[in-house]
What does this fold into?
Amino acid sequence: MRGVSIVRWLVGLAAVAASALGVPPALANHQPIAEGPDAGQLPPFMGSAATPDPVFAKEPPRHPFMAPNGLSNLHVDTWQTDRNRWFGPLGRDMSRTSSFQAADCASHTFDRRGRLITACVGLQGPRLMMFDPDSLHELARLQLPPRQLQSDGNQNPFTNFSGGGYFYLDERDRAVIPTTTRHVLVVGQTEPAGFRIERDHDLTGAVGVGDAIISALPDFSGRIWFASVKGVVGTINPSTGAVASRQMNEPISNSFTVDESGDIYLVTDTAMYRLRADGAGVPRDVWRAGYANDGVKKSGQTQAGSGTTPTVMPRYVAITDNADPVNVVVYKRGNGARVCQAPVFSRGRSATDNSLIATNRSLIVENNHGYTGPPSTQNGQSTTGGVERVDITRGRGCRKVWHSDERAPTSVPKLSLANGLVYVYTKEPRSDGNDGWYLTALDFDNGQTVFKRLSGEGLGHNNNYAPITLAPDGDAYVGTLGGIVRLADASSPARLPLRLRLRIRHRRGARGCARGAVRATVVGPDAEAVRVAGFRLGKRLVRRDRVRPFSGRIARKRLRRARRYSVRVRVRSAEGRRTRLTRVVRTCRSAG
It folds into this structure.
């Protein structure tokens, strides 16, 4: 791809896209994203395969009007945590598959049959796509309205994410997606595989000409919220189609977050908000909190404000501000009081335009400083780089835990709780002019790079603000300017056995027999991945535990003297793996 101008390449993409629209999908199924002639000189894999080291975090509530957590939207769940309870790749004999689409296939969701549903946004405009998740064969497409000449005034195709960049999959596998014509479509599926528009919500009365819808999400009552680039926030009654809205008078550049109370958290280019719909559906302030902003649209950002969708934690909500350097800022969910803030990266070289990863008390932030568009990573160039972890400490505010020098120009990173890896999409500078893009795994505990797997070489493999997505089977997907890439272990890490054992404790009598009550505890390297353990004495259930440490007590009155008992435990991990553990306990002849 070296030596080819971006304009020429994009013209080529548009031509291919236009021709592809006129042929049956099967004719374009096997076309991979093109690479440069020297791509074979790049190392396909660096580092070593990872050993899972699970991370514990409270599971966000399941949204009743969205697909299950991990399947429903770009940021994984209703709290927008960008973490998955299941595995990502471990770096074991990885393969890659790509599908050339002449568009950036960014937001990835999965229907109940496991099919990949995504929006591909290119020069021809956005289209809703359905792919086979393994082969990336195209199964269905729906062309959405093209880009509008006056859409929000932002004519840069690399930074305009309105009208299709964000969408969600609802509880009925329907895609709910804003359009460039200021509508919100509800798109269902047909058999054989296809799409059908079931509902068209017209928002042109609330969102004016020259504005554009940035995102739409439902609250826990089913009401659909929306936000526009020029600061309109509103709600749609999904039954009647009635629209209620207000003008915030502050630009909005990111999506928003919904919590289980039905409120939303939204960040404008000026302030952080918690909003609640009144009886008529009009959004009202629960609280408003300003943040530091030097007014500069920093290199690597698409606006002069926070570059992050708000990320909700059990007690807090977090964003980055627009100071210099940028701060991670944490607020109390209830009243908006500032808990703490911590500067990340260095002055004059700090910017982020991607959402934070969150656990219960940890936040991961990526530095996008230096990305001014695709030319900034062409011909061996790269960006400033940096990934950092900030923890909220009890009583001591925020502190930086680690820093990585990895350069992730614009990825939306993800964390796998099941294996303890943070996934970023990196590109290192090279003197030979090659442009190698890598899926890179960092250790959540210390930030060290575990492995890198080549995604591809050249402009077509630049993700340009698209996310990394982890599928339930452990595969990873990355949207790129050329289409979509799948990176997967040779065998699914989700099939790895849980490394657990059953520890038995009791008052010991002669020859190790048990006197009195017996306590059984699930222990082992994967104990943090456990979410529920059912303890049984023989076939009888004694206790079902959902809290760490997973333990069950068998009372003395349940145990007869001089008997052998099988203590059994059925265990289920957060990502759905199951196992059974058994230990035999021998009781003493006497109670003394």
About this structure: The chain has two domains: 6-494, 497-586. The longest strand covers residues 514-523. The chain is about 5% helix and 40% strand. The domain at 6-494 is CATH 2.130.10.10 (Methylamine Dehydrogenase; Chain H).
